[in-house]
Amino acid sequence: MKGDYPRFNDIYSREELIEHFLLSESERSLALEMRGEANQLGFGILLKSVLYLGYFPSRLRDVPNSVRAFIAEQLRISDSTTEYSWNSTRYNHTLATNNREDQEVKILSLQLLLNCMMLFNTVLIQKILQENPFLNSLTSADLRGLTPLFHGHINPYGLFYLDLHQPSFLEAA
Question: Model-level pTM?
Fold first, then answer.
């Protein structure tokens, strides 16, 4: 239906789990910094869910068992999500700290990362569509399938070099 939010599939193949829910080493390390296995797994699920869906799922039961088990397997812990404090407001999820400022910084950092990724991807999609003559051959279903929420080409961790003599990402894209 028009206007529906993206949702999880009922079933994922192993390849799909790897493509969409594989934790990078940095993401895994960040999740393992959380206190307790339930918080580690809950944080990992939230992190990969927001990258996959573009929003935080409001209920744990919205996340398929295969996704929870795959993330737990990567963290080498049991599926302890039943112990995770999962409530319906996305900004009040327990992030293994009582410091409200730390929680806010983590959530806002994820939101900033997602916004930057979407801006870059939108510019990239627009440039590709302008340069290629196949735009007229796309159906309405193809156009609905275009989304700036893909993230396989982005490394959000590590070193970033700023060279003011190079064109900006808007020109480079």
Answer: 0.50
